[in-house]
Amino acid sequence: xxxxxxxxxxxxxxxxxxxxxxxxxxxxxxxxxxxxxxxxxxxxxxxxxxxxxxxxxxxxxxxxxxxxxxxxxxxxxxxxxxxxxxxxxxxxxxxxxxxxxxx
Length: 103
Prior knowledge:
82% of the residues lie in helices and 0% in strands. The protein is mainly α. It folds into 2 domains: 1-52, no CATH class; 53-103. Helix 1 crosses helix 2. The chain is elongated, with a radius of gyration of 32 Å. Keywords: GTPase activation. This is Rho-GAP domain-containing protein. One of its GO terms (molecular function) is GTPase activator activity. One of its GO terms (biological process) is regulation of actin filament polymerization.
């Protein structure tokens, strides 16, 4: 099976033609089918170029991801410190109120 045959089979699945209730003639449908098959053939033929992510973009995304991870780590540390501080503060207040009640 050639790439053109595969394109002819795949094209109707990816490029659906909506006529919006109008009856279109056979010639128009044939031209539309040929056009979508040609587009699909180009997609298959140029797949290496179309679906390959350039290395500089991959590196940029990795860098952004590591920076975001670092920011999240800092934010989590800050939150945990605040929670520990609040817990200690609450425990001190609770201890002070219980000491006052005993005396």
